[in-house]
């Protein structure tokens, strides 16, 4: 006879982590950056508390930004996102852009501040 309760014994549910699960190039800078974010999540995040005003959280945003765009661009994006998260800063859903517009260049990192502030403008 079959299992009358609908249980699937021996089958484990798919575990999804809190960080972005998409494919990304595992370059040394990206691995270092995402590892530092993950280290923070596993250690200091519990002491800081769950006070992020955004979805995804600032650490999840930084992890995805570094994975998608590299340590330099993603690191700046993550830093500026954290700075926007204060009591008088932005809040709500703020996703990492899939692609960056051509104005976001490595030698002008201050431009990354604009990402997330103007959501009506497409980032591509």
Automatic annotation (TrEMBL):
Predominant location category: membrane
Membrane disposition: Peripheral membrane protein
Region Disordered, annotated ranges: 1-23
Signal peptide positions (record): none
Entry annotated with the keyword Cell membrane: yes
Xref: Pfam families: YidD
The keyword Cell membrane appears for this protein: yes
Entry's localization field: Cell membrane
InterPro entries the record matches: Membr_insert_effic_factor_YidD (IPR002696)
Top-rank taxon: Bacteria
Keyword annotations of the record: Cell membrane, Membrane
Compositional bias annotation for Basic residues: 1-10
HAMAP family: UPF0161_YidD
Role summary: Could be involved in insertion of integral membrane proteins into the membrane.
Family: Belongs to the UPF0161 family.
Protein name per UniProt: Putative membrane protein insertion efficiency factor
Organism: Mesorhizobium vachelliae
